[in-house]
Each structure stands twice: as C-alpha cells, then as structure tokens.
Design brief:
binds pyridoxal-5'-phosphate; globular; alpha/beta; Aspartate Aminotransferase, domain 2; 5-stranded mixed β-sheet; 15% strand; 10 helices; two-stranded antiparallel ribbon; 2 domains
C-alpha cells in the first residue's frame, strides 16, 4: 500500500518535492511545462510574465512550423554575421555594434562575468543582474523606497553611485518590477551626466510596450561610448521559448565579450 501523508501519496510527495526544487538557487520562475506538465501548460494563462500575445502571428507560426524539421536537423552557423546584419537592419543600428545572445539572460551572464567588477543596482530589480555576478557582493544595492512607490530618481542614484566610487551602473527602462518609464529625454540627460561612468547598462527589454514613439535609446546609442543596451526579444516578439536577445554597444569592450560569446556557442 502506498504511504499517505495528508491527502498526498508517496509518489505525489516526491513530485511535489521535485517541483519545489525548481525554485531553489534562482529567483527566476520555473517553466509552466515543468510545473504543470507539457499538456496542461498549454491551457494555463501566465499572468506573471508580460509577453506580446499578438506575436508571432499565425502566418509566422505556420512558416516556422513548415521549416521546423529542416531547422532542427541542421546546424546553425557559429558565425553570427548574417543574423547580426538582419537584426541591425530591423533595429537601425550598425551590425558591428550588435551581439546576439540566447536570451538577454545569456548576455547578462556574459556582461557580468567579463565586464563588471562592482555595479550599482536599484532594487527591487530583475534578479539575474545580481544573481549572475561572479560574486553577489559585487552588486551595490540602491534600495528603492516603498513610501515613494519604489520610484527611481536618476540624479540621486548617480550621486549615490559616485559617492561609493562605483564605475558601473544599471537602469532598467521600463523598470522590472516597478514599471517606471523614463522618457528618451530623461535618459539622454542622465547619460550626459553619467559620462564619467565606465559602463552604463540600460536594459530596454520592455521598451516596445512603453509608448508611441518608443522611447528607446537605440537611435542615440552611438553618442555614448559607455552605454550598453540590453534588449530581450522574448517579450515584444512573444517568443520567450526561442531565447533571443541583442546587446547594442559601441565596440569598446567587444573583443572580450565576443570571444566569450563564441566560446559559449561551441
Ligand atoms: C528586465 C529584464 N531583462 C531581461 C530579461 C530576460 O530576458 P530573456 O528572456 O531574453 O532572457 C527579463 C526577463 O523577464 C527582464 O525582466
């Protein structure tokens, strides 16, 4: 007879333990398929994560489906030049300033492990920026105040980072989880004042949801040699399962990143 605890049988308990384990050592949610099973996952609406429900369109999906056997049965190029060119045309940037990653998360790992010693991070934030550092203590946390609705004041933040002699800082625009949006003018003004920083990471993964015209720094990125833009494609293209993202930057630190990126493709 199966052991019973409460109304859970032993195998069910093991499964529950296994699922709990998916939450350990990461603040990132497990996949719905892991939690609910592949078939059930299709019936669940995930309110915890914002993605574009209108993309990919049925035509795009049909195209992908048609080409899927060929795609999974062939190796992709390990040289990203063509992909970079296509994406650069869509984004209107120089292809040499782009690095494509397996999701922004891969790019965050690369940035954190190759470019950063100590970095200012406003919290609450998207956890990977702290968790994927070589050492969590390399993040200096700028605590956003609940009584100010967790809003970030860019001038105060910059002053705080300077007083701590930090040379790198992160801004997520629009903020995750706060949703706070800075206009393009506010961001440009901030970058003008932050020219003494070695690295300013601006994560624009949700920027395409932030208004029309989209207040992205893409069009002015070339003016700021310390700026590094991170853009996940999971959200506005509605394809978190494809793991696509890009990083835009004038190529100062690119050699170190490109070589680690090439390694991760091997
Ligand atoms: C601000 C921010 N940046 C990056 C990511 C990661 O995106 P990706 O799915 O491309 O790894 C997330 C995921 O939620 C996010 O909220």
């Amino acid at each position: 007879m199966e052991q019973v605890q409460g109304n859970l049988t032993a195998p069910a308990l093991i499964e529950t333990e296994q699922r709990k384990h998916l939450f350990y050592e990461t603040s990132h949610s497990p996949s719905l398929a892991d939690l609910a099973g592949y078939e059930n996952a299709k019936k669940i609406i995930d309110f915890c994560f914002i993605t574009n429900p209108y993309y990919p369109t049925p035509e795009m999906l049909a195209d992908l489906q048609e080409n899927f056997p060929n795609l999974i049965k062939s190796y992709p190029s390990s040289n990203p030049a063509m992909g970079q060119q296509h994406l650069a045309t869509v984004l209107g940037v120089n292809p040499d300033h782009l690095i494509i990653g397996n999701g922004a998360t891969e790019l965050i790992v690369l940035i954190n492990t190759t470019l950063i010693d100590r970095i200012a991070v406003p919290v609450p934030t998207f956890g990977e920026y702290v968790e994927k550092l070589k050492d969590h203590r390399d993040a200096e946390l700028f605590n956003l105040r609940p009584d100010r609705e967790y809003s970030l004041d860019l001038t105060t933040y910059l002053g705080w980072a300077r007083r701590r002699r930090l040379k790198a800082l992160l801004v997520i625009n629009p903020g995750n989880p706060t949703g706070q949006v800075f206009s393009l003018d506010e961001m440009v003004d901030f970058l003008e004042h932050a020219k003494d920083m070695e690295l300013v990471i601006v994560d624009e993964s949700f920027i395409d949801f932030a208004g029309d015209p989209i207040p992205s720094l893409l069009s002015v990125a070339d003016k700021f040699s310390n700026l590094l833009l991170v853009r996940s494609m999971s959200k506005h293209c509605g394809v978190p399962g494809l793991r696509l993202a890009a990083r835009v930057r004038t190529p100062i630190f690119d050699r170190s990143i490109r070589s680690s990126n090439a390694m991760s493709r091997c």
